[in-house]
Design goal:
This protein has about 425 residues and is mostly helical. It folds into 2 domains: about 170 residues, no CATH class; about 150 residues. Helices cover about 85% and strands about 0% of the residues.
């Protein structure tokens, strides 16, 4: 059974009849076999070229020997012979370098042959550069040996070029064999990365589903709590508290208006106290501050004493106000003393505060807000979790798209390389 038949389970003639489809998983084995066949074809031919090159190197050794043994032409002068001797030694030395440095490899691998060719050509060029002038003297004094040396060097270079011509076209294919192996590894790596990415996406989708379900459950529990009687009672209680606070604010405004007609007197008292024209007692100074800033905090008993003091100062005209203003202030003092306007407002305020305290205690005893706060914290956590998973999922999907594009590119390169080896009809089946 042929190798193609062994790999594909088809008869050789069936494989040859149509396009060649190479199984990706069996590609390394197939490439190794093809490479082996290519080497088996080339090695004998390379071996023959190595023999030719080795023979050329032997010729160069002989040419060097003959050069060292040669006599200069008969009509050469002593001076010319002396100069010629030093140049002959230089040429002989460099010919020795050629024979010593250019060593035919035992390995007949085309890659080794290609490296051998490059190194040998570099050595020859270096030798030619080093002996260019010396060879002019050799040509003049030892013309026969010069011709023989040139012939041997040219013969060696020609045989090296023949080796190059033999392996030049094949080297590209041999390089392709190595590229196929590398590219196969890249395809496998990308496939592994894609598999890992898809698994992570599945895991993230499962996490997203779980987090979304948790969020939906939290929303549902919040709606249930909001629709319950306990939450409604709490809202009603809060509304009552808010109404009472508004009522207190209104009462405070009404209390403040009771002292508005006396504002001129208060300002004059404060100024006289600051300027030490009429210094107030600490108690009256504090009362003055209260009636100006927070009259709702005044107690009825302390207010009575303060109003008596104010009445005396108005009647004695200590404040230096106009008579009409004095009468207006005295009228308001009598109203505060003789009516229950202030006490009624303070009682109303105290009643509202008491009710607020009672309602607040009721709210504190209700567990609904603590439950709601806990559920809202959970919902916030689940919302953050859903957002985080979606970001990770988006990043992983983008990475998967990149890896899939890289895989397609790697497969395209691999198919191109396969065609170089197995023909234009060849393609990889994954």
């Amino acid at each position: 059974m042929g190798f193609i038949e062994k790999i594909f389970g088809k008869k050789q003639k069936e494989a040859e009849a149509g396009p060649v489809r190479l199984e990706f998983n069996k590609l390394p084995e197939l490439v190794r076999e093809e490479y082996k066949k290519k080497l088996e074809t080339l090695r004998p031919v390379i071996g023959e070229k190595y023999k030719d090159i080795d023979n050329s190197l032997k010729e160069i050794r002989n040419a060097r020997k003959h050069l060292l043994e040669a006599e200069a032409i008969a009509d050469a002068s002593k001076r010319a012979e002396k100069v010629g001797d030093s140049n002959r030694e230089n040429v002989a030395y460099n010919l020795g370098l050629v024979a010593d440095k250019i060593r035919v490899p035992s390995d007949k691998d085309p890659k080794v042959a290609f490296a051998f060719y490059g190194d040998s050509k570099a050595i020859l060029k270096n030798i030619q550069d080093n002996t260019h002038r010396s060879q002019l003297y050799i040509k003049a004094l030892y013309p026969g040996e010069f011709e023989n040396i040139n012939h041997c060097l040219a013969n060696l270079e020609s045989r090296l070029d023949e080796l190059y011509e033999l392996i030049r076209d094949e080297k590209s294919k041999i390089d392709t064999f190595e590229k196929i192996s590398e590219q196969t590894g890249i395809v496998r790596q990308r496939e592994g990365e894609i598999g890992g990415s898809r698994k992570r996406i599945l895991d993230l989708e499962a996490r997203y589903g779980s987090a979304k379900k948790d969020l939906e459950n939290a929303d549902s529990r919040i709606r249930e709590l909001e629709d319950g009687s306990e939450f409604e009672n709490a809202n009603q209680t809060e509304s009552k508290i808010e109404e009472l606070k508004n009522r207190i604010s209104s009462v405070d405004s009404d209390i403040k208006r009771l002292f508005t007609p006396m504002s001129k007197a208060f300002s004059r008292m404060e100024k006289q106290d600051i300027n030490e024209i009429y210094v107030l007692s600490p108690e009256n100074r504090e009362m003055l501050r209260k009636v100006k800033d927070e009259p709702y905090s005044i107690q009825e008993k302390e207010l009575a004493a303060f109003l008596d003091m104010l009445e005396e100062r108005i009647e004695s005209q200590d404040l230096g106000l106009k008579e009409q203003m004095d009468e207006k202030i005295l009228k308001q003092i009598h109203k505060l003393k003789e009516t229950a306007a202030m006490s009624d407002l303070l009682d109303e305020r105290e009643r509202c505060l008491s009710e607020i305290e009672t309602l607040t205690d009721e709210l504190d005893r209700l567990d609904v807000y603590r439950k709601m706060e806990s559920l809202e914290d959970q919902r916030s956590q689940y919302t953050n979790s859903v957002g985080q998973v979606l970001r990770e999922l988006d990043a992983e999907q983008k990475l998967l798209e990149e890896r899939e594009a890289e895989l397609e590119e790697a497969k395209c390169i691999l198919n191109s390389e396969i065609k170089e080896i197995f023909g234009q009809d060849a393609a990889v089946r994954y």
